[in-house]
Structures are given as structure tokens and as C-alpha cells.
Amino acid sequence: xxxxxxxxxxxxxxxxxxxxxxxxxxxxxRNQSLVLCYAxxxxxxxxxxxxxxxxxxxxxxxxVHQMSIEDYLDGFEEDMDIPQAGFYQFDTDDxxxxxxxxxxxxxxLVLVISDSVFEVTYQTLKQHEDTYHCANAEQAxxxxxxxxxxxx
Length: 152
Fold this sequence. Notes:
Elements: E1 3-6, E2 21-28, E3 31-39, E4 50-58, E5 63-68, H1 69-74, E6 86-91, H2 95-98, E7 107-113, E8 116-122, E9 124-132, H3 137-147
Antiparallel strand pairs: 1-6, 2-3, 3-4, 4-9, 5-8, 6-7, 7-8
């Protein structure tokens, strides 16, 4: 049986309709990385707009899927439900899968924002400092990328 558990150590995404998310997929040699920028939930509208930056990487294949929640859940054989916006990972009831401590093992992160799902299969995840006072996720992503020393 497959279930989802919420990941609490990442900043919660904004839950407004048409939430702002941008990403860049890049490849250097065999290594692929995905830089994801998303609007962070604010407690008060007077708080400056904040964007979180996550970087996923994998040695060879980094899988990325984005679709509506309905289309995503239709892909499962059993009835499943995602209760709210946020970050999730798959849980498994198989003890053999749960005990694997291989560094090369891949993980799956599911980001649910308003009415869409963004799923990434990756090996490593790095959370960067939040970006403030940007008009949108695209500007925040560009600001992060221009400040970052890109690998050559």
C-alpha cells in the first residue's frame, strides 16, 4: 500500500490559486540538477513576498513530472488522496525497501500547490537561502542564478 507523509523541514508553499513556481533543469556532464523556486506561505499579507530555492540533483536521470492533482491521482491503481498543499514523500510498507541505506538510492518528492502536483525523483536535495522582495518566482530564480557561481 502506498501512502504519502508530509515533509515538515521545508518551507510551506503558498496556497493561493495560481501559485508562483519556476524551475530550471540543467545538465553538466552526466550530472543533472533542477533548481526550483516557489512562493512561501505568509502569515500576514504585510510580510514581504518570500521565495524558497531548492536544488535537486542526480548522477544520471532526474525525473520531473508536473500535472493537475486529478491527473496525478488517476495514475495510481488504488484510491489516494492528498489532503492539502505542501511537500510529501512516499511511504512504503515494504521493510526491505525501507531499510536500504544506499547513497545512490533515489527519493521522490511531491510538491502540491493549489490544483497542481510537481513530482521530482532525485538523489540529493539542497535547500538554499530564501529570497525576499521579488515580484515573482521567475525574478527570484534569476536573482539566485546570477548570484550563484555556475559550474563550467
